[in-house]
Amino acid sequence: MKIKYIKGSILAFTMLWMLNGCSEDFLTIEPTTQLTADAIQTDSDFEALVNAAYDPLRWQVDGAATRHMYPVMFQDMRADNVVSQWATFWVAGQAFDKNPIQTNNPSVEGMWKKWYTMISRANTAIGVITETQKIKDEAFRNQLIAQAKFLRGFAYFELVKHFGGVPLITEYIKDASYNFKKPKATAAEVYVQIEKDLLEAAQTLPAIAAKKGRATKGAAYAFLAKANLYQKDYNETVKYCEEVMKLGYSLEEKFEDNWDLNNEYGKESIFEIGYISGSLYNNFEGGQSYSNQGSSTHQMFGFLFNSSVGNSAFGNSVPRQELIDFYDNSDRRKEYTFITPQTIVRGGRGAISCNCSTNPDGSINFATEGQWVFGTDTYNYFWPTGTPAFKSKASMYKYWIPPAVQDGLQNYADSPLNEKIIRYADVLLMHAEATLMGGTGVLSGASSFQLVTERAYGAGNQKIPAYNLQGVKDERRRELATEGWDRYTDLVRWGDAKTALEAVGKVFVVGRDELLPIPASEIQQVGPTILIQNPGY
């Protein structure tokens, strides 16, 4: 019997990708021919099935400039935090700068493909590992199944956040006679499956993963909390936040340490995507699949240097000035969320100063060149020439890597900086919000809020926001800015999206823009009377 799974469409079958390696390079890809069940013999083979389900987490680019799947596009850029500087250059960025998103948007199709590929691979892993008699260690079997269930639950959560109800497929598909033409389940039905998968995973997964980057009990409970927060079940949100809080996570003493290359998988990290520099194969925007062991997020959102530093970022997107101004100057996060013309201290690794010429309003012309001083080394920076109207006071710190590291990469899309999916600060803010909304638990929501704000402002600072719902909303924006997992959908679930987007000159149509469109290509394959398009598209 051949194992088949979905890639790109609910209808399409492709070969299985086996993965090998350990630690944070366990996602290394080795394309193989279609795998047969008889070929799976060892524990390592079964582990590789689960590793294949992790792989789509790292999908960021698929073939063309129109098909990017960066979380920051779908959340911060689509909302009010980030703007594309190169509207005519970066097609995907231009699309997410405004509404409505078109039904044939390639990035939306790419994201649909990404999460359904993860779901299909997880279904395959669960089915094969459940049925096999070749695994003798039942604890090992259960751990693998729990990881796959976590990944399936996480993928469906990303889908329901952006699309609402979607086709719900949890079967292990063994042959091509399976009917893939499924209508959408309701959002409530999808959430039932998400909670089932995540709870079953949480009950089995370890508190500390044997290998970095694997799912843990804390990750499962954290996303259970978030799934319930999105459903406005505040008692359950508090309950699962407090399960995470029992597991020994804590905030980094310094906010910026979360993005220190020497502190990846730190004590605040609950789930993150691991990257290491080094290309396996790379055909960026060339019509073929794209994969690096490193991240390409730096390429699109990192800081630019001129040709004196190799592998420079494109600097396609920058934080909105409204976001920069949203921070008080006494808020430590301001200095470590944005790279500005002012001096910045980078996590104890030396000072960076910008000796640049500025406009009277403090912005930097795109044609301006100058120097950054990093320790004893000096590097030229470069804001590329372009439309003179585009100016920026900042770049995104969270995707910045030291120029000496950047210069040594194999290519500009090969950053070794990991991507945080969920941090303990997020859990604390969810706990604070759910408690304000009436959720009850053992621990204090005010104390959770205080932990986050005192790290940011310093204990006793009069600028610390009041612990109320608006204060929590504001702190979620400041704490999690440009990380790409919740800003737009936070605004939607709060009912604040129309006001927030119109404040920065964007359009939000109530009844349409809460959700993305189902990809037109998917509806065409399944049938428009079976898979119904979301309202307003």
From TrEMBL:
Coiled coil: none annotated. Keywords: Cell outer membrane, Membrane, Signal. Residues 26-227 form the SusD-like N-terminal domain. The keyword Repeat does not apply. One of its GO terms (cellular component) is cell outer membrane. InterPro entries: SusD-like_N (IPR033985), SusD_RagB_dom (IPR012944), TPR-like_helical_dom_sf (IPR011990). Residues 290-501 form the RagB/SusD domain. It comes from Flavobacterium potami. It is found in: Cell outer membrane. Pfam families: SusD-like_3, SusD_RagB. Its main location: membrane. Belongs to the SusD family. SUPFAM superfamilies: TPR-like (SSF48452). This is RagB/SusD family nutrient uptake outer membrane protein. Residues 1-23 form the signal peptide. CDD domains: SusD. The keyword Protease does not apply.
